[in-house]
Write a structure and sequence with these properties.
Elements (H helix, E strand, L loop, with lengths): L1 E5 L20 E2 L2 E2 H13 L5 E6 L7 H13 L3 E6 L6 H6 L9 E4 L3 E5 L9 E7 L7 E5 L5 E6 L8 E9 L2 H13 L10 H10 L4 E11 L3 H17 L11 E3 L2 E2 L3 E3 L4 E3 L2 E2 L3 E3 L4 E8 L1 E3 L4 E8 L2 E2 L4 E3 L6 E2 L4 E2 L1
Parallel strand pairs: 1-4, 1-6, 4-5, 8-12, 13-16, 14-17, 15-18, 16-19, 17-19, 18-20, 19-21, 20-22, 21-23, 22-24, 23-25
Antiparallel strand pairs: 2-3, 6-11, 7-12, 8-11, 9-10
Organism: Aquaticitalea lipolytica
Protein name: Nucleotidyltransferase
Pfam families: NTP_transferase (PF00483)
Length: 339
């Protein structure tokens, strides 16, 4: 089994945080999004992973530190790491084909801005599985259309008329991903574009036209990290899941509490100092932060920050930030000083 992870996008909707850090490496509940996604997929697949292929963007943004982090992630999971580059943002289908040397055998393709809770029961009769989540507003999503056998017969993007309420979440399994590769090569060779880009959906449509059987897999939870508001919400939900799972070491032993308290669930990293502060619930704080006279809940704070005299809720703060202010629901990028 292989895992293919397209992650070349710049994450413009999550600015200013993605000006300096690729979106898949933003930490949620103390761990980068892509690390948590890949680990969860490996866990639920419950079978050996031969290779994990990461499709990155410009080396100036996805540099050696990113490559080293992803390589270590794969190796820790017993897999070979393969690194590919998508030099131009030409769509999901194009991104996958940037890793064409790895497109053989059974594989899961997973976009790196999504977190899930699921049980991956792979249907042995299916040539492919598309994971979906039941949603309240299907007109806002790409959805699947099913036949009487519960096989997927069509992918419909943001339907004006009701098709189904099963939204595609961006995780796919292919019994032989080489079949998808051949269809995507046809898409590229014939310049088949939608919205000016080469899309994975057109490769999937080609497979369906040739009689390949697609089934749905349903996730119990689908968490997005597309913008600041949903990333903070995902952090809150993930902390709750980790606490329910009995996750240990969510609060580092090096945390110093000076007339302060922590209301769980929280993730608090190494060498954090809390002075006259209340943290939680639903707060993640990275390493080497100092908070003084702060009340914070439902927020995501990264590393090496100094925060004073504020009351934060639904906030997202990057790295190396100095903040002393009255604003409550802030979004502050790396290396900012607001006093």
């Amino acid at each position: 089994m292989k895992i293919i992870v397209p992650m070349a996008g710049r994450g413009s909707r999550l600015r200013p945080h993605t000006l300096t850090t690729p979106k898949p490496l933003i930490p949620v509940a103390g761990e980068p999004i892509v690390h948590r996604l890949v680990k969860d997929i490996v866990k639920v697949l419950n079978q050996p992973i031969e290779e994990i292929a990461f499709i990155l963007g410009d080396p100036a943004f996805f540099g050696d530190d990113v490559v080293n982090s992803l390589t270590k992630l794969a190796e820790n999971l017993g897999a070979k790491a393969s690194i590919y580059r998508q030099d131009q943002p030409l769509g999901t289908g194009h991104a996958i084909m940037c890793a064409k040397e790895s497109l053989s055998g059974p594989a899961v393709i997973a976009y790196a801005d999504t977190l899930i809770r699921a049980n991956f029961n792979l249907d042995p009769e299916a040539d492919a599985v598309i994971w979906v989540k039941q949603v309240d507003q299907p007109e806002a999503y790409g959805v699947v259309k099913l036949n009487e056998k519960n096989e997927i017969i069509e992918l419909v993007e943001k339907p004006k008329d009701f098709v189904s309420d099963l939204a595609v979440i961006g995780i796919y399994y292919f019994k032989d991903v080489n079949v998808l590769k051949n269809e995507l090569q046809h898409v590229l060779d014939n310049n088949i574009v939608n919205g000016g880009e080469y899309q994975i959906n057109d490769g999937i449509k080609g497979m369906m036209a040739k009689g390949k059987i697609f089934k749905t897999g349903e996730v119990s939870e689908w968490m997005d990290c597309g913008n600041k508001a949903v990333t903070v919400e995902t952090n809150t939900r993930m902390l709750g899941f980790l606490k329910a799972d009995g996750e240990e070491q969510m609060i580092a032993s090096t945390v110093k509490l000076n007339n302060s308290k922590i209301i769980e669930p929280c993730f608090i990293g190494e060498n954090v100092v809390l002075n006259n502060s209340t943290v939680g619930p639903n707060v993640s704080i990275g390493n080497d932060c100092t908070l003084s006279n702060v009340i914070v809940k439902n927020s995501l704070i990264q590393s090496q920050n100094t925060i004073k005299n504020t009351n934060l809720d639904q906030a997202m703060i990057g790295n190396h930030v100095q903040y002393d202010g009255n604003f409550k629901t802030v979004s502050i990028g790396d290396y900012s000083v607001l006093e």
